[in-house]
Amino acid sequence: MSISRDRKAAVIREFQRSPSDCGSCQVQVALLTERIRSITDHLQSQRKDYASQRGLLKMVGRRNTLLRYLARSDRAEYLKLIGSLGLRK
Question: Tell me: the pLDDT tens digits for 44-75?
């Protein structure tokens, strides 16, 4: 259900703003999106895994909060991020 170390490093490299950046809003949203997709696939086959379902809802809420912050602070970066992640907003 969690993403691999290599995939996480690749996502960080793709969305980081500087070489030492690993915690900016864009990186956090990208990592949450990757985890959400992973857990969604898991829940397709394990419909009664309510603990994972609750964790998924918490991650979606956290990602939504970060996206709202990014939309308020830097609208152009927000639009670029949701375009590259394929999110509907």
Answer: 999 999 999 999 999 999 999 999 999 999 99
pLDDT in tens, 20-38: 998 999 999 999 999 999 9
CATH of the domain at 24: 1.10.287.10
What's the per-residue H, E or C state across the chain?
A: CCCCHHHHHHHHHHHCCCCCCCCCHHHHHHHHHHHHHHHHHHHHHCCCCHHHHHHHHHHHHHHHHHHHHHHHHCHHHHHHHHHHHCCCC
Domain region containing 23: 5-85
Looking at the structure of the chain, the number of domains it has is 1
